[in-house]
């Protein structure tokens, strides 16, 4: 059901409200929300979006398992984020650029939340070591889209206090979802040699959250993400999180042969999606780790190292914001489009424009392929904002590969 985005203040009370895990939201949020409806299940339009999450009614607590480099404790998954999805699997992103802060750790310290920051420094890790940048990305992209965390929902709002509540609630939820322990109790432990099935992993987690499944993310057959889905009755800060099934088919793991590598150097794990790359950030929460699915970026790899990306017209550069491409499945592969239009190989060159006939691409070992060939080339290496035309095949001087970001 649609919801009217009208934020009407209610009466506020005094002290902070206790969250799960014993932590508190900041002291000025204590709305009275009589008979709150469960998000994604409302039967009437809800006007007060300080008491009801819309349009992002389903909240996803997402976790990483990184092994190369090892990220976080060896016996714990780490936090990816808390994401508000619409109830149909789509989502908003970067809803308030004016609140996209880049000093998250300083904000948290300014409110005296040292315990929260310690938890984040342990369990909310960026695999490149840029934790504050990662936190800024998660808040700016997802946190600003949670309606109950709008500044108007706070009494005598103090600048950035909703940021602290976002991270506190995410950490508290994470502590209630000990993925490593739950899998271990079902005999699913990190191994260099053992493999597991999707059914076994789902059963282990469903035993702790009866009646619902999770989204499993795999990269090259290796388990690296779990998304826990919730509908929420009331505000995110103080409401009831009700376990829910995924709001669409998103899992990207095979039915069997899933590897769950240890965090002790036993194997090479592809880098996870979702952390902040050096040029541009994908705006998709489509299936974690699924190449050429949903929305993402086309990153250029020269000799195995990332060197820039493809921009909206289909050319290559190494400095600036990467274009967002949409991959749409077809009978024998997928098509790509950018803001310029469909993408195809025209006169041997990758081109995206309104009148371009779409080429059906495929993925070969996770790399973009045209006509079954994953080789691409250019007359020279791109430098800065100077664009280079991208040709299908290896006929030009500089060869490279294109991978999904």
UniProtKB/TrEMBL annotation:
- So which domain of life are we looking at? Eukaryota
EC numbers listed for it are 4.6.1.19
Mind telling me which Pfam families this protein's record contains? Answer: Ribonuclease_T2, RNaseT2L_C
Q: What is its main location?
A: cytoplasm
Kindly state one GO CC term assigned in the UniProt record.
Answer: vacuolar lumen
Checking InterPro entries in the record gives: Ribonuclease_T2_eukaryotic, RNase_T2-like, RNase_T2-like_sf, RNase_T2_His_AS_1, RNase_T2_His_AS_2, RNaseT2L_C
Keywords of the record, alphabetical order, are: Cytoplasm, Disulfide bond, Endonuclease, Glycoprotein, Hydrolase, Lyase, Nuclease, Signal, Vacuole
* UniProt feature, compositional bias: Low complexity: 269-286
Q: Where is the active site?
A: 80, 138, 142
Supply the SUPFAM superfamilies for this chain. Ribonuclease Rh-like
Query: Which EC class does it fall in?
Result: lyase
Q: Work out whether the entry's keyword set contains Disulfide bond.
A: yes
Q: Where in the cell is it found?
A: Cytoplasm; Vacuole lumen
Per the record, the similarity remark reads: Belongs to the RNase T2 family.
This molecule's function is given as: Rnase which modulates cell survival under stress conditions. Released from the vacuole to the cytoplasm during stress to promote tRNA and rRNA cleavage and to activate separately a downstream pathway that promotes cell death. Involved in cell size, vacuolar morphology and growth at high temperatures and high salt concentration.
Instruction: Write down what this protein is called.
Output: Ribonuclease T2-like
> What organism does the UniProt record list as the source?
Aaosphaeria arxii CBS 175.79
Highest lineage ranks of the organism?
Answer: Eukaryota, Fungi, Dikarya, Ascomycota, Pezizomycotina
């Amino acid at each position: 059901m649609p919801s009217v985005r009208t934020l009407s203040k209610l009466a506020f009370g005094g002290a902070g409200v206790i969250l799960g895990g014993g932590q508190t939201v900041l002291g000025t949020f204590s709305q009275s929300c009589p008979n709150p409806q469960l998000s994604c299940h409302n039967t009437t339009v809800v006007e007060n979006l300080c008491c009801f999450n819309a349009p992002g009614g389903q909240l996803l607590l997402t976790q990483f398992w990184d092994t190369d480099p090892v990220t976080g404790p060896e016996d714990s998954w780490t936090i990816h984020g808390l994401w508000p999805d619409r109830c149909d699997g789509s989502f908003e992103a970067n809803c308030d650029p004016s609140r996209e802060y880049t000093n998250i750790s300083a904000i948290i310290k300014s409110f005296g939340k040292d315990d929260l920051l310690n938890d984040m420094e342990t369990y909310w890790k960026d695999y490149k070591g840029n934790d504050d940048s990662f936190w800024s990305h998660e808040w700016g992209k997802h946190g600003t889209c949670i309606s109950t965390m709008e500044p108007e929902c706070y009494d005598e709002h103090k600048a950035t206090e909703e940021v602290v509540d976002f991270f506190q609630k995410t950490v508290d939820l994470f502590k209630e979802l000990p993925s490593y322990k739950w899998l271990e109790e079902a005999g699913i432990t990190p191994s260099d040699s053992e493999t597991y099935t999707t059914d076994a992993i789902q059963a282990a987690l469903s035993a702790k959250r009866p009646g619902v499944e999770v989204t499993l993310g795999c990269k090259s057959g290796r388990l690296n993400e779990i998304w826990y889905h919730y509908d929420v009755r009331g505000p995110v800060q103080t409401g009831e999180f009700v376990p829910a099934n995924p709001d669409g088919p998103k899992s990207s793991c095979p039915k069997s042969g899933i590897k769950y590598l240890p965090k002790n150097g036993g194997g090479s794990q592809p880098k996870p999606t979702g952390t902040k790359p050096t040029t541009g950030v994908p705006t998709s929460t489509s299936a974690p780790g699924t190449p050429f699915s949903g929305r993402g970026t086309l990153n250029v790899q020269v000799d195995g190292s990332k060197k820039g990306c493809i921009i909206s017209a289909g050319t290559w550069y190494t400095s600036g914001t990467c274009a967002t491409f949409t991959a749409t499945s077809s009978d024998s592969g997928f098509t790509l489009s950018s803001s310029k239009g469909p993408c195809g190989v025209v006169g041997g060159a990758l081109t995206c424009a309104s009148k371009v006939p779409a080429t059906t691409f495929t993925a070969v070992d996770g790399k973009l392929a045209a006509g079954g060939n994953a080789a691409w080339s250019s007359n020279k290496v791109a430098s800065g904002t100077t664009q280079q035309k991208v040709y299908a095949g290896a006929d030009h001087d500089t060869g490279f590969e294109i991978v999904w970001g």
